[in-house]
Amino acid sequence: MLQQGPVGFVFTLAVFSLTLLFETAIAIGIILPVTNALTRLRANYLPRAVSLNSVMEDGRGPEPERTNIFTRLFPRKEMSTKIGPVVPGIWAMMQRIRRLEGLRGLFKGATPMGVIMVVSLLIVASRVDLSYMSSGHLKPSGEIHPFGDFLLSIITYLAVFPFELLMRRTMAHPDFVNWQRPRTALRQVLSPEELLHPWKLYMIPGLVPAVLLRKVILVRLTLLVRHGLVPAFDRLKNVASADPKDDVFEGPTSALYQISTIGMLTFLLWVGVIACSLSFLSGIASKPMIPP
């Protein structure tokens, strides 16, 4: 039990601040370099080089292709000459960034990412009942409200969307963007039209639906899958105390806290699939975020 009164409030606030700093350090130290490399990898457009062979192939008719079970399972990837450095994957892109820009290049976009985390946490913290923090008791999570949580996710996304766009463009910018000078930084990552009319950032074709699908729908689906496979991870409903005169009492049982091995493995597999989907959609969404 926490201490009551102002001391309990200060203690809870200190714990919350330390937790926030710890999560921010993990996000910037681990997630940011991977996101940086993935964004640059998706934005690395390499056109095909024009050569005599490619010109002759354009005038040649289609040749009959022999297909069997091996060619269907392991399709051969046609290699063509590209203009510019060919980077095969995320790890190779991280090594290239470190070689050309140093470790500092892997952490481009740290300032917008920090703003995203702060804004998101402030929106989520607006639903916290502060009266329980000073009473010395922890309030239960409360009942699940699917529509309210879904609406909160959309509001959070719309609030942090401009900062995510700034983060992506900062990562892909050829120069280092110094956010200690906001006006100069905004001129580097935004076009003159976007500076005059910031609301047009939401009107970039296909960008809002792609990021909305990534940040909201897939997360909601994951919560539904977790509720069905691992209900012990869900928030429990508030249960009123049983009255001695009651013959029937409804509430959580010991079976609810048991975690099934098959359910846990299936949920982890689902999380892996979702992670791959998020990476794919992140690449799709990062291209319109980068000005031509």
From TrEMBL:
InterPro entries registered for this protein in UniProt: MCP_dom_sf
Regions crossing the membrane: 6-32, 105-124, 144-163, 255-281
Tagged with keyword Cell division: no
Subcellular location: Membrane
Gene3D superfamilies membership: Mitochondrial carrier domain (1.50.40.10)
SUPFAM superfamilies: Mitochondrial carrier
Cellular-component GO terms for this entry: membrane
Keywords: Membrane, Transmembrane, Transmembrane helix
Chief location bin: membrane
The protein, known as: Uncharacterized protein
Annotated organism of origin: Malassezia caprae
